[in-house]
Amino acid sequence: MTFAIAVLGGFVFQLIHMPIPWLLGSMVFLVIGSRLFKGITLYWSGQVRDTGMIIIGYTLGLSFTLSTLTQIGLQLPTMVLFTALLLLCAGAIAFLISKLSGIPFPTVLMGSIPGGLSQMITLAEEVKGIDITVVTFLQVSRLMMIIFCVPLLIFSPLFHVSGNHSAVAAVASGSTGFVTLSPHIWVFAAVCVLSAFVAKKIKLPTAFLLGPMIGTILINLTGYEGHALPPFVLSLSQLMIGGYIGLLLDLESLKNKTKIILLSVLSGVLLIGISMGLSLLLTRMHDITIVTAFLGLSPGGMDQMALIAKEVNGDLSIVTCYQLFRTFFIFFAVPPLLKLAFRSMLKGKQVTN
């Protein structure tokens, strides 16, 4: 039943010509479906989501060549600068939301760190006094808002881009694209699956995305060429990821729903606005398009931003590297820094008392 609702959402969003319809459609319809069918427990396997992530990881890996990696190396200082600026702005927004809502600042801050859903929820369980429900809601609602709003902004007259309607063209011509695949695809498939499990074993963030991506890059650099996947497979990967995200949002366990929803929307709007401002600055510093800069700095997930970049012919390697750098920074640097800051705040309160 969950799959049927997700597919229906994808079809409806494709009919009304929404961007990345299978991601957004499945996500929105399952959010609505989980509210309508309260007597039925809708379920979406994490393994299905992981399969979709492997497909996206392979697609991302294909965009990396020796020349693009060299270009990215030149932009490393800029990645550090813009990641730091975005996280500082997220902290300022969290402080504002905390003052307006009365929710403790540590809880709001953990819910406001962009691109750190799994890491922040795991960290919230380790720190005393953190409301995990609020952290989860703020992270998921911001992610869903960004996934929904960023494509609409990208395809609006503001950015002057047109979508890559390859899937529509393939259907119209009666071709699924499978004939273009060579036997080499099975080598890449085996490497991607193996890389995903190795990445999970060594506890890389978003292992089922990073593992296949790194594996594909390594094979690419040896000169062994991979092939672009058919539009049908890419649409299926959107569905696999969108269905999972759509069921993450649980409004029933949330107190003061209206107030927190309004404040999370405010937080998302401010973060998107800041990302747009930073992307304009980035285009002045490097020779990249505004679309690529915006998607690279958008406070959403790497897989979703990459899907949009592919749709609008953005520079996948640049988008992925900016998102990837922020993911690693949040995974390795942010948790110890937050723990240190929260300990200092707790000690300060004890001294005051």
Automatic annotation (TrEMBL):
Record key words, sorted: Membrane, Transmembrane, Transmembrane helix
Sequence intervals crossing the membrane: 6-32, 53-73, 79-97, 143-161, 181-199, 206-223, 229-249, 261-282, 324-342
A biological process term (GO) from this entry: regulation of gene expression
InterPro entries xref list: AbrB_dup (IPR017516), AbrB_fam (IPR007820)
GO CC terms, sorted: membrane
Pfam families the record matches: AbrB
NCBIfam families for this protein: Gneg_AbrB_dup (TIGR03082)
PANTHER family given in the database record: REGULATOR ABRB-RELATED
Stated name of the protein: AbrB family transcriptional regulator
